[in-house]
Amino acid sequence: MFSGTTQSTPGCVQSARMERYYRLHSHIYDYTRWSFLFGRKKIIGMTADFVEPRRILEVGCGTGANLEALARTFPAASITGVDISDSMLNKSRRRLDKYGARMELLNCNYNRPIRRGCHDLVLFSYTLTMINPGWRDALNAAAADLAPHGCLAVVDFHRGGTAWFSGWMGMNHVRMEGELLPSLQQSFEPLFLSEAKAYGGLWQYFYFIGSRRG
Where are the domains positioned within the chain? Predict the structure, then answer.
């Protein structure tokens, strides 16, 4: 049953390191991330060309901005947001209270499926590059959570254009080594793929929409 409050799930383990990081950043996240987390609205709009989901899962839902956009884009869908940070989920809960039972928020480390074969859309928006180690486990969980004809949608960093920028992002828990996109193409059947440059090539990011293989 869906709930407008944050819940815990059995076996979910919170990362104290990331919670410490987001305890501060949750207060400034929505005011600062627009300047470099490009394509978040675009990836949500593009998914409507491939699927009309009834159940949606966003991994790393943060302050709930994407969840709200998903709720508006897909008004008939039930939506689950997962995040490892209580501080971020507190922000998300306040933003999404108006959606009531359509929304469910889970505080957990996404390293295993939540509801196998139930989600028509699983979204990772600038999440996988921060799951280090463990992003492969997250993709395996997403493949299991997807319904047979569901779609995986990802927008994320690809490669840093300079060593100093990649190093600085690494200090902020972001890995930009180009390993995600090849793994996505191997694990999922690509339906849409595009790469883009930010600030004249300071870094690259990508869009990926795919379906379960087989």
Answer: 6-212
3-class state of residue 188 by DSSP: strand
Beta-bridge partner residues of 6: 105
Walk along the chain (214 residues) and give the pLDDT tens digit of each residue: 334 444 444 334 336 666 665 555 555 666 666 677 899 999 999 999 999 999 999 999 999 999 999 999 999 999 999 998 888 899 999 999 999 999 999 998 999 999 999 999 999 999 999 887 899 999 999 999 999 999 999 999 999 888 888 888 887 778 888 999 999 999 999 999 999 999 999 999 999 999 998 7
- CATH for 6-212 is 3.40.50.150
* Sheet with 78-83: strands ordered across: 6-7, 103-107, 78-83, 55-59, 119-125, 146-160, 203-212, 188-198
| Residues near 48 by beta carbon (within 8 Å), at least 6 away in sequence | 73, 74
- Residues with Cβ within 8 Å of 164's Cβ and at least 6 positions away in sequence, in order, are none
Q: What is the pTM of this model?
A: 0.86
d(CA 126, CA 159): 13
Q: For residue 105, give the 3-state DSSP assignment.
A: strand
To which H or E segment does residue 1 belong? none
Determine the Cα–Cα distance for residues 214 and 148; give it in Å rounded to an integer.
9
DSSP strand pairing (78-83 vs 55-59): parallel
Give the CA angle between residues 17, 203, 201 to the nearest 5°: 165
Which residue's structure tokens are 């849409």? 192
